[in-house]
Amino acid sequence: AQSxxxxxxxxxxxxxxxxxxxxxxxxxGTVNLFWYVQxxxxxxxxxxxxxxxxxxxxxxxxxxxxxxxSKFSFNLRKPSVQWSDTAEYFCAAQANQAGTALIFGKGTTxxxxx
Amino acid sequence: xxxxxxxxKFQVLKTGQSMTLQCAQDMNHNSMYWYRQDPGMGLxxxxxxxxxxxxxxxxxxxxxxxxxxxxxxxxxRLESAAPSQTSVYFCASTSAGTPIYGYTFGSGTxxxxx
Lengths: 114, 114
What we know:
Structural class of chain A: mainly beta
Radius of gyration of chain B: 13 Å
Low-confidence stretches of chain A: none
Largest interface: A-B, 25 and 29 residues
Number of strands of chain B: 11
Number of strands of chain A: 12
Order of helices and strands of chain B: EEEEEEEEEEE
Largest sheet of chain B: 7 strands, mixed
Helix content of chain A: under 10%
Largest sheet of chain A: 6 strands, mixed
Shape of chain A: globular
Mean pLDDT of chain A: 92
Strand content of chain B: over 45%
Number of helices of chain A: 0
Number of helices of chain B: 0
Strand content of chain A: over 45%
Structural class of chain B: mainly beta
Oligomer: heterodimer
Distance between the termini of chain A: 41 Å
Radius of gyration of chain A: 14 Å
């Protein structure tokens, strides 16, 4: 069965520190990969997505993610975090077949102190 | 504004009561989904509808039923609510079987079963 694992449950950083959140997926076929962010009290918003092509994808708010097929990974990065990045981050994967649903990881809570 | 609308936003039920969570999208999306979000568990898929007229079980369907009323609306019903169904419920939609543009999420329904 398809699954998504996020390595870190809670990450605490100071402003300007660099961020990397790990995500691994398990699925034998072609997958589409996503990172979503949920700010406190809000619903999920799409940060970035990967379907094909350049494995380094750039999203909103300075985030990027790298797809490494050999490692089944899709890690999220940001060179310098801000206090406003405090949120919960979800990695998600979907088999590249019509009618399949997104499967989410359990999420990583990022706390950024100013 | 175009998007996914969920009602109600908050609900408190007594054990054994029934209720229906409503979801409507005005983006002409084919596929719609219901997830529940619990602390430390991420989002788990309850049911989804890949297209009008079809519904399928997700990871945690027990205790729930769904109806794809038309292309716009996808409701989730709890026939006999249990405390274990206390959660935040999110509806989402996407334009096709493969979410090229990612999912659009509603703002959620916070349900408490006492």
